[in-house]
Design brief:
The chain is mainly α. The protein is built from eight helices and no strands. Helix 1 runs antiparallel to helix 4 and helix 6 crosses helix 8. The protein is globular.
Length: 220
Amino acid sequence: MTTTTTTPVDTWEMVLVHRVFRREFRMLPALVRAVAPGDTARAEAIGDHLHNLAGALHHHHTAEDELLWPLLLDRAQMHADLIHRMEAQHDRLHEPLERISELNPRWRATASAADRDELADVIAQASVALDEHLADEEAEILPLVSEHLTHAEWDALGRRGQEAIPKNKLALVFLGSLFEEATPQEKQRFLAQMPPPIRLVWRLVGDRTYRKARDRVRVG
């Protein structure tokens, strides 16, 4: 059964989030490899960022597994092979993400060269798989979302994603990471959806908070 809406669902926010995941996973292998053996302070800074990023990606994929694929399989049955391919891509990404979760704490504790190099290699593998998956999702899945999901169902997926956003200053880091990728129009659109108190906090200290966190990872 196909669910129609008078106005198609607009999936622009997911595309913006995807740009952040792509950027960070592409940058991280080189950042990890540049850490000198034994420099645990630098390993902790980058490893903490990697932990937050991998956790956010896991949450993002779990939300799709639970809230998106079942609806599309029910309503877009002629595209079942495509949807199962998306599920298989999630499964393939699970292995490097699990390996990252094993290696990262050990590297943060010791900053050993062996753990560093293996971790960088695994992140690079995850980045390649992620690029393939996100490109397929944007080209082939998001048009199906616009056709087959209601606004309420898409909003439920968005609310699930918001659950991954910390309720401390890391929320400002998350917003800044998005805004680094956003066009001016996308940034204004995103801010307009936020509660006024959060918009005020962002305008007062958000950009400064994000730049400090960003430079801690990218510059040291």
